Amino acid sequence: MSIDLPFHRAWLDEDEINEVIDTLESGWFTTGPKTHQFEDEFKRYIGCKHALGLNSCTAGLHLSLAAMGFPEGSEIITTPMTFPATASVMVHERLKPVFVDVEPGTLNIDVGKIEAKITSKTRAIFPVHFAGHACDMDAIEAIAKKHGLAVFEDAAHALESSYKHRKIGNLGHLTSFSFYANKNITTGEGGMLTTNDDALADKIRVMRLHGLSKDAWKRFGKSGYSHWQLNAPG
Description:
With 234 residues, the protein is of the alpha/beta class. The protein has helices spanning 14-26, 33-46, 57-66, 85-92, 137-147, 198-207, 216-220; strands at 50-54, 75-78, 96-99, 122-126, 150-154, 162-163, 166-167, 174-178, 191-195. The longest helix is centred in the N-terminal third of the chain and has 14 residues, at 33-46.
């Protein structure tokens, strides 16, 4: 007997439907009040200082690397047990993915094998919380501190995960979440980048918006047109 497993099955009720109708009737379809509300509620749930709404988790992974400005050819340690986006964003930034094998059981990166892959070109560790299992972040942080490396987290699977009583996304790094169709909550497409770093949050707010100093809501809102600056190639 064969069993058909759907790719995804969204559980939507009247609340979600009414929110979509409210957005459509507002006439404002792009980044604006609803996005800002979502960001505020998300950061309260995670317990972090900043939550930045994006069009995908992949965008969060990409912006995490782009914001750091690592030299071309720098090495980023990650796991092969992940979606292609984790490594693809490294290639787009002209960086080199370096894969470390995973643990049996959790399928998370094996922290005992990380240091053997660190070289003079290594700049960051990019763990993936696979299937909701939180990686051993204390051990990863200790290795990163010892070698002067940044730490970013791919939390596409880990919206409701915790590590030692702290929610993933509130550990002080840049953490990327997914709201794709088959995730715990969905916006169809969409993602979120969380951090407790004020300077990185400010930089990424500009980078996610093509480098513009003001988003469309601030440029064309009820107060009238407001001039903007191009601050960076976002």
